[in-house]
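Predict the 3D structure for this chain.
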Amino acid sequence: MAKNKFKIGLFKNENYNHYMKRYRKVLLIGLAIGLLTCKDDKKKSVSAKSSDTAKPNIVIIYADDLGYGELGAYGATELKTPNLDKLANGGLRFTSGYASSATCTPSRYALLTGTYPWRNKNARILSGSAPLIIDTTQMTIPKMLKGAGYTTGIVGKWHLGLGSGNVDWNQTISPGPNEVGFDESYIMAATQDRVPTVYIENGKVVDLDSNDPISVDYKKNFSGELTGKNNPELLKMKWHHGHNNSIVNGIPRIGFMKGGEAAKWVDEDMADTFLNKAQDYVKFHKNESFFLYYALQQPHVPRTPHPRFVGSSGMGPRGDVIVEADWCVGEFIKTLESEGLLENTLIIFTSDNGPVLNDGYFDDAVEKLGNHKPAGSLRGGKYSLFEAGTRVPFFTYWKGHIDSGVSDALVSQLDLLTSLAELVNSNTKGPDSENLLNAFLGDSQKGRDEMVLEATSRTALRKGDWVMIPPNTGAALNKLVNIELGNKKEYQLYNLKEDIGQEKNLAKSNLDKLEEMKAIYMKIKGEEYSSIEGLELK
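Done. Predicted structure below.
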């Protein structure tokens, strides 16, 4: 088992205690001045509200492939998620909260940059050796918050590329999270099912033995290396599709890897590892204003719950890792409480896209599903333009500041950049990001008017209660994962208020609304992007 310690640079600073005493003194003086000058106005702005507790800490907890119907707070009855339910029910739960895309990399790109992923041709599902797709000059949430005096950190899944191509995993890897605004990073490069299967801390592979260098290739195997395709007898988890290359810990992966044995992670320990790093980050920075992007790996494949959680859901590994993720969030919240930080921490929880059951491995996700409905009442799932692809669990929690309740406001992860900038009195605005801070804090039910949704380079429009899906000549069903993609050769138009399951296509019976939606869609996307999809521009 690899030994991974979160070695934060400031721990080595001998002047740290002296520095923090001075910092606290300056902070108290600043607070006193701020309170004296603050007017007692019942209708004061949300920016002014934040001055009551100085700059709040900000934590984004990002699940991976968690569907709209997975949590008790969102109607699940078969899975028990008490910790997430407590946050969702104690905060503001959004019924129309969206990821920007029905797949992982594009959604993560949009969340951090406030930019529609379809504007970046490289914002697609990346391999583990893909170059960084966020330009280092681009504005991001952590970069904006650093400018506002925050320390910034990421723990967990990255999957936005590293380096400039042809990464040497045995040297400092750059650019990466640290070059786009994060002071500290402890990540995996892509996904748990992709090589390299190692943790990377501030650009360096953790516990790498220089005598056993890492090599990675996504096209061809290395001589003498075993694969899931050719050596099924070595597997503890069987592959269903696309996951039959290098074997690590008895699990076949996507891509080929050689070397780095001492640095390889233990899959069953991953949730604990990331939780511990997130807790360490909070404990060390408790006397500063901090931002933490805590990117969970669950319930993405391969689903490898720690032995403590095996069998906990009765639904096989997929259900077990959701229970495990819920526990991790609960333990993380306990850390905020024990450090006296919960009342000054804004927590945002959501998922990068909708659910998928069989996504490459035989793990009983389908066979043991029972009565659980990962998408709730929505149609589709991961990879889909139907609602379940992008409508996800989405709630905000800030003890003593956000009243518990439910909001039907139309909000997107795309809007977090500009909204958080408003919270910390920054003038930053993302290219496609709107200021919905009032909605996120529960002071308004007004959200977005419209937004473009994406699924593997295909796009649709939601405006108000309506969704319009343009024609697409691709397959209607992804047969590998058994999910409807939302593709048809004709326009689709649905009234979500009356038809949440998207069963009745109104495109032919409501031509006026269809034309209105088409015009708005074209205005947002423009001729350049729409012509790429093969749409008629008239």
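The first strand starts at residue 57 and ends at 63.
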